[in-house]
Design a protein that fits this description.
single chain; about 475 residues; mainly alpha; two-stranded antiparallel sheet; two-stranded antiparallel ribbon; 12 helices; elongated
Length: about 475
């Protein structure tokens, strides 16, 4: 009975550890990490079906040959097999979207050499005509269609100086007049909300990309989760997890604020059956508690840029600057998903801060694909955090069992050193006492029988027989 109670206590302790692990300290949002996790469980399922079944949300148009505007780079891949992108053939492009002159597939070159030098002149400024957009759109004539289902975000081996250079430029090369209090997605106590809202979702995208790599290294040979990579890249860094959750909160709020606008868009590909399925999944999505009025509100955008229109313009300009760095990524698949996710985030910012903007098809696809990728990453973080708490509970039980074992050993040692000699002494004393008592007793000697016989004169005399 006692053992069963102890086992149940360990289970409860593990659950408590798990809950506390998910309760990250979040700033600049209007909900908790626990609430986001709870809402994300149902949301992730709907988004997964939408992005895997719907042709509309799976076909993305992108320019993968666009030159880096900031420093010389050959734009080549590090591996032809892992970084290459398979573009859509003519038959794969939705009928309603087809046009003449579509570009064919873009392939990696055989001898990739990535320029690792940073241009001393820094980042270039944008044209005045670009001032009103959050991300620079690719030119139609240079864009190709890509089915995201056949080109999933995954580990490509893209790393080293080229990859570090891009993220260094994102976090440090931009000299913002108002964002000097944030570095690497971490903002100090003197930063304003606008600074934090610029850097946190970018750090969140970085964490989400990292989680897409981590998920490919999740199991050991025995099938259990391998926590080492997760802990070293994400798990040990509270701000990285918090920024990922912030990204989910911001994207969720952008969709919730714009449900009416998004619901009116024509989600048509020319395939009546698939379009009907898309409409059915979208209706389920619009009715999710995260997007219904009066339910969970995840972010408050109303207190930003109050009376500071110039600050909003600078915010937009520098986000646009950052998002264009994705054209400097040397891996095609990494560039594809990087451009998509920054376009998705830019679309969310556009919905939050530009009133009721007109949206392009590519922006809507990017928005929901980015929301889905972020949702996946949050789900994966939750899974890993639960595994970490389970491991902690197992280690705690092992420590407790070790303590109990040591206590038993110590008791036996005490018994050997003290109890047994005392018992032996007591036994010897008892035997000695018994022996003494036995020795004090008289030995038994049988007496002779005496009888009397009459004498001749009539008196009696003794006779010994």
């Amino acid at each position: 009975m006692r053992g069963a109670v102890y086992a149940w206590a360990l289970v409860v302790a593990g659950l408590l550890l798990s809950a506390s692990s998910f309760n990250l300290k979040l700033e600049d949002v209007t909900c908790s990490a626990v609430e986001l996790n709870d809402a994300n469980k149902g949301l992730n399922d709907v988004l997964s079906r939408l992005t895997s079944r719907s042709n509309f949300f799976s076909i993305f148009k992108v320019d993968l040959l666009k030159e880096c505007p900031f420093w010389p780079d050959d734009g080549m891949c590090t591996s032809k097999d892992s970084c290459g992108v398979e573009c859509c053939g003519d038959d794969d492009i939705p009928v309603a979207w087809r046009a003449d002159g579509e570009e064919g597939c873009v392939e990696c070159k055989d001898d990739p050499k990535i320029d690792t030098r940073v241009n001393d002149e820094g980042l270039f400024s944008f044209k005045a005509t670009d001032n009103d957009v959050w991300t620079i759109q690719d030119d139609e004539k240079d864009m190709i269609y890509v089915d995201l289902r056949t080109n999933p975000e995954s580990y490509t081996g893209y790393r080293g100086d080229s990859a570090r250079k891009a993220w260094t430029a994102i976090y440090e090369e931009n000299c913002f007049s108002f964002a000097k209090n944030c570095q690497g997605g971490i903002c100090d106590s003197e930063s304003c909300k606008e600074e934090r809202v610029l850097f946190k979702p970018i750090s969140g995208i970085h964490t989400s990309i990292t989680m897409s790599i981590v998920k490919e290294f999740v199991t050991k040979d025995d099938g259990s989760l391998d926590l080492d990579m997760y802990l070293k890249r994400v798990g040990y860094f509270e701000e990285r997890k918090a920024n990922l959750y912030f990204l989910l909160a911001l994207l969720t709020r952008a969709v919730a604020k714009s449900v009416d606008t998004l619901a009116e868009f024509e989600y048509s590909t020319g395939d009546a059956t698939n379009d009907a399925e898309t409409a059915m999944i979208l209706q389920e999505l619009w009715e999710h508690p995260s997007f219904k009025p009066g339910c969970l509100k995840t972010f408050d955008e109303t207190d930003m840029f109050q009376g500071l229109p110039d600050l909003k313009d600078e915010f937009r300009r520098h986000f646009r600057n950052i998002s264009s760095i994705m054209d400097c990524v040397g891996c095609e698949k990494c560039k594809l998903w990087g451009k998509l996710e920054f376009l998705g985030l830019g679309t969310a910012l556009k919905l939050l801060f530009d009133g009721s903007p007109e949206l392009q098809r590519n922006e809507i696809i990017a928005l929901f694909q980015t929301l889905k990728k972020t949702s996946d990453s949050v789900t994966l973080v939750e899974t890993f955090e639960y595994a970490v708490s389970e491991e902690k509970a197992g280690e705690a039980k092992k420590t407790e069992d070790t303590k109990k074992t040591e206590a038993v050993k110590e008791t036996l040692l005490i018994a050997n050193e003290f109890a047994l000699p005392v018992f032996a002494s007591a036994l010897v004393a008892l035997l000695t006492t018994i022996t003494a008592l036995l020795l004090q007793r008289q030995p038994f000697t049988p007496k002779k029988q005496v009888s009397t016989v009459p004498k001749a004169n009539g008196s009696m005399r003794r006779r010994t027989e």
